[in-house]
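Treating backbone geometry as a discrete language has practical consequences that deserve illustration. The sequence in question and its structure tokens are set out directly beneath this paragraph.
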Amino acid sequence: MTFLQGVVNLPADTPFNEVGFWEYTVSGEEEAPSIPLSGARVLVVLAESGVPVTQAVTNDDGMFVARVPSGERYFLEVYVEHDLVALAFVEVGEEKHHDVGVVGDASTLLAICKRRALAVPGAEENLSEEVLKAWREDLLKHWRKGKSLVHFPPLKEVAKKNAVLSLDPLRLFTKVEHFFGEDGHYLVVLWEAQEEVETTLYLRPFRLPVFQKEGPLAGKTGRFVMPVEEFEGYLFFLEAKNKAHLLGRTPTYAVRAPFTPQIRDATLFGYQEGPVTVLRRETRGRRIIHFHSDRDGIIVLTLRGAQERGFEIEMEFDLTRKRIFPKCFMQEGFKHLTLAMYFSEDRSFFWGPVGRGVKVRDEEWEELLRLWREETPEVSLKDHFVEVGFGFPFVEVIGFFRDQEFRLFANRYPEDGVLLLSCRRLNSLEVESTVYYRGRVRLWGEGVFEGCFLDVDFEGKFVEETEKEDEDTSSFQSSVKGPVTFQAKFWVGQIRGFSPDTRKGQ
């Protein structure tokens, strides 16, 4: 297997780049500079058949990484939402790492030439410099208008060509279907032919360099049932020989096996910065908190001269040795994993103090404390200054590949609320605070993990450090920081297998 790694750069004045052109403009330049394209989907397809093999998502630096079978040729298709914006062609040998380089205007033009050569018999792969220069000017104009490459004339000419028909000139195969068995441990391949043939299946997992041979089976119909490994990718094709010893074969298909859902309990140790107060005001009225847990319910806060403060929190946990994800996930190359959680000022608030400015019915307060299963918050309304908080954090799992960070799972549109209790002792010289957390969030997989999800049901405790070193208080890192511990239940599941729908909507 081989890991493809590269970077996607597009001109700064294209609508596809989230970063403004003015941030990169250099005085005297006639042409917009190329800048990294973040959050783009990189679809890896077989050059022979156009079948998707895997996919990746570019990080903030425009970098991507994808695990593919060695010894094959691929087109890389870069999408922003459903718009095809860039291309590249790569021919992979047996090396473990393949540097794709920059995916941009030059790679796109070369990939179009290669696609024309593969799709149109007799088409020239190496075009003149004049033609390429004209194409490049048209491509830059095309990008500035924010148009998908499917409407780019040189590529549009070959879009409807089908070069794979030459693999089976006699049309021996009339139907080929494949699916995984109910338990996901077997790949089933069904085929039909227009005459009596001998059919052989060739199958290889991504991690092996050669195809395994199964068969032949004689007849006009048949099926192969092959064992597969969890979440491993496979290439396969069928080859048929009729009574006249004439051959035909299918294009190469790519599939990825499903995996068995996994539930794990883990204790996470991390570090937190915040809460940092960014807004403080006196308020009144009611706040209704809808909290979803084992005991779904509503908590009503009645505010009378209460203090409301918006806050920010950042925290991070190391997941590397927690075995939270199935072992098969590790083969994608991300050996070091972290869980990060961010509470933003616009969706995170504390209300207090409870008992004076904030009124909560006794039965609701007891019900609130019972939401913590492992450790009931040690708070006393008589002895502590207590605030009730609620926020919608952004949560992500980050994987590291050769010192580059990639987002693997995230709740892109946070809708799961987290309950917080903040307290500090009254009538004491100790001003350090303790924050208790209770929440449940669902994260969705990105890139190769699309179709997978991660549910995190957690409760935790943050204790502010009592001894602090001198620091720069002008940055986010304020004096409020310290260790945080979570007791969490992780559920890793899958709603569908790998079947990228990137091309829809073009």
About this structure: The first helix runs from residue 105 to 119.
